[in-house]
């Protein structure tokens, strides 16, 4: 990895920008003149058009950006990391993190393939990791005030894909954040999603709403014509209507409508659960299909 001073990191900008237009996504391939990789690899950053992303600096092993979500006045920082695969060079990754940490005090999310583990429990198969390597990684995160955000799913993010007993699995990919970012997104969750086209899983970071951020207007409640096919629908309406007959005429109508709306909404959540599950299943199938197509396209582009 090229060694950059703080000033050099701040001034690095892409000399070449290749753009692939994908529905709802901007795909930017970042390369530096001092880090040509040709078609063998590289780093890519994808974002929705509704999100504002400002490039701060980059190298062969990181992309550092400022992020502002649609409808939000809050800026935060995201750094995508690819740690040195050569153990002898990995200390350069920790020094890079330290320099990046010194550049900004913003809420910070740092995620990617660190090529290192934080505990012996994060490796299965093969020889144990030397403890000094684990200590160095822990010290680097502590120095940068970054904490591991955990995960949902498989405990490992990489596999050598060998058959037993030669299988090796490790948790090399993770998301880390400082306390400011965790306070900004207190309900954020990290999910490991298997990818058939890669020996790594995808680390998916789900964000909850942050202050001053509204992703879209709340969906208005509507009566669904399909509900009329259920005999239970008429019963729910009748019971709701009778619950407030003791009110005055004006209050009664308003109250009856409110009761009816609330009870229909509550009833529909369970009455059509099987239908919703089928819809979700096919949505997931379609999402996985287009995600794999996108990854194949990115692989060819990079």
From TrEMBL:
Note the InterPro entries from the entry.
Answer: Endo/exonu/phosph_ase_sf (IPR036691), Endo/exonuclease/phosphatase (IPR005135)
Which Gene3D superfamilies does the protein's record reference? Endonuclease/exonuclease/phosphatase
User: Example GO molecular function term?
Assistant: catalytic activity
Domain Endonuclease/exonuclease/phosphatase, chain residue ranges per copy: 35-200
Check the record and name the Pfam families matching this protein. Exo_endo_phos (PF03372)
Protein name (database record): Endonuclease/exonuclease/phosphatase domain-containing protein
- Source organism of the structure: Sesamum latifolium
């Amino acid at each position: 990895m090229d060694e950059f001073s703080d000033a050099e990191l701040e001034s690095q900008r892409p000399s070449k920008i290749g753009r692939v237009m994908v529905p709802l996504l901007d795909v930017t391939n970042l390369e530096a003149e001092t880090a040509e990789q040709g078609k063998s690899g590289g780093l890519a950053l994808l974002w929705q058009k509704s999100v504002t992303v400002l490039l701060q600096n980059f190298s062969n092993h990181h992309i550092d950006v400022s992020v502002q979500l649609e409808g939000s006045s809050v800026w935060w920082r995201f750094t995508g990391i690819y740690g040195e695969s050569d153990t002898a060079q990995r200390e350069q990754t920790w020094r890079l993190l330290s320099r990046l940490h010194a550049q900004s005090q913003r809420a910070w999310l740092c995620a990617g393939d660190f090529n290192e583990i934080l505990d012996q429990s994060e490796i299965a198969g093969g020889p144990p990791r030397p403890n000094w390597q684990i200590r160095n990684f822990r010290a680097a995160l502590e120095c940068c005030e970054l904490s591991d955000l955990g995960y949902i799913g498989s405990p490992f993010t990489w596999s050598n894909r060998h058959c037993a007993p030669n299988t090796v699995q490790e948790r090399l990919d993770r998301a880390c954040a400082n306390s400011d970012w965790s306070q900004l997104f207190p309900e954020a969750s990290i999910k490991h999603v298997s990818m058939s086209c890669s020996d790594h899983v995808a680390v998916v970071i789900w964000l909850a709403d942050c202050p001053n951020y509204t992703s879209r207007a709340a969906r208005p409640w509507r009566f669904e014509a399909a509900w009329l096919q259920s005999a239970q629908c008429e019963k729910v309406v009748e019971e709701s209507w009778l619950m407030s007959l003791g009110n005055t005429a004006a209050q009664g109508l308003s109250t009856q409508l409110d009761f009816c709306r609330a009870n229909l909404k509550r009833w529909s959540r369970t009455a059509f659960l099987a239908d919703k599950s089928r819809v979700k299943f096919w949505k997931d199938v379609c999402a996985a299909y287009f995600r794999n197509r996108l990854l194949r396209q990115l692989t060819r582009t990079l």
